[in-house]
């Protein structure tokens, strides 16, 4: 506030002097430069965050699609007679994908936690299905539909957040 008062006083009392105008310009220029630099810096930070968030969304979308597709492939008719080793490999691959997806999710957000739980159910259901236990193909299909629906909602909201940063 004092700086503004001094600035106004200089303008009112010394405006007719060339040296005063140069002094005011010299005093003000670092502040103007600082203000401009801060604005540019904030914009660059927002852009970088948006770019990294978009990369994260793309990776999450890819991992979700791969996990859902791997479940469909593992339960297709051509894979009905998998060997024990093939079933164990399929289960291990699914668990790896689920772990990666869970690491990409935000545990603070309710729907992210719900998606992680659905993927846990999916991994358990796939293992039971491949071991010819209680899970049916319809059970897996239902879980996958719920995963896709919730994933679409999450990815849409995250995309809206990225767009909102520009």
Description:
By secondary structure, the protein is mainly alpha-helical. It folds into 2 domains: 2-37, no CATH class; 49-164, Four Helix Bundle (Hemerythrin (Met), subunit A), CATH 1.20.120. It contains 5 helices and no strands. It has helices spanning 2-14, 18-74, 84-104, 110-130, 137-164. The two termini are 32 Å apart. The mean pLDDT is 81.
Sum up the structure in keywords.
single chain, 166 residues, Four Helix Bundle (Hemerythrin (Met), subunit A), 5 helices
CATH class of the largest domain: Mainly Alpha
What fraction, in percent, of the residue positions are helical? over 70%
Give the helices and strands as they follow along the chain.
HHHHH
Mean pLDDT over all positions: 81
CATH architecture of the largest domain: Up-down Bundle
Q: Tell me the strand percentage band.
A: under 5%
Form type: rod-shaped
Number of strands: 0
Task: Describe the structure concisely.
The chain has 166 residues and is mainly alpha-helical. The chain has helices spanning 2-14, 18-74, 84-104, 110-130, 137-164.
């Amino acid at each position: 506030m004092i700086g503004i008062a001094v600035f106004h006083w200089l303008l009112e009392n010394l405006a007719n002097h060339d040296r005063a105008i140069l002094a005011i310009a010299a005093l003000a220029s670092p502040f103007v430069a600082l203000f401009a630099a801060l604005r540019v810096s904030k914009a660059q930070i927002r852009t970088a965050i948006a770019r990294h968030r978009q990369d994260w969304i793309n990776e999450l979308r890819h991992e979700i699609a791969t996990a859902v597709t791997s479940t469909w492939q593992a339960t297709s008719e051509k894979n009905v007679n998998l060997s024990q080793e093939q079933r164990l490999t399929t289960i291990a691959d699914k668990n790896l994908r689920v772990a990666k997806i869970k690491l990409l999710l935000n545990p603070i957000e309710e729907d992210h936690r719900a998606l992680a739980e659905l993927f846990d159910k999916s991994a358990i259901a796939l293992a039971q299905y491949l071991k010819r236990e209680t899970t049916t193909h319809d059970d897996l299909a239902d879980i996958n539909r719920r995963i896709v629906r919730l994933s679409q909602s999450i990815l849409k909201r995250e995309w809206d957040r990225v767009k909102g940063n520009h």
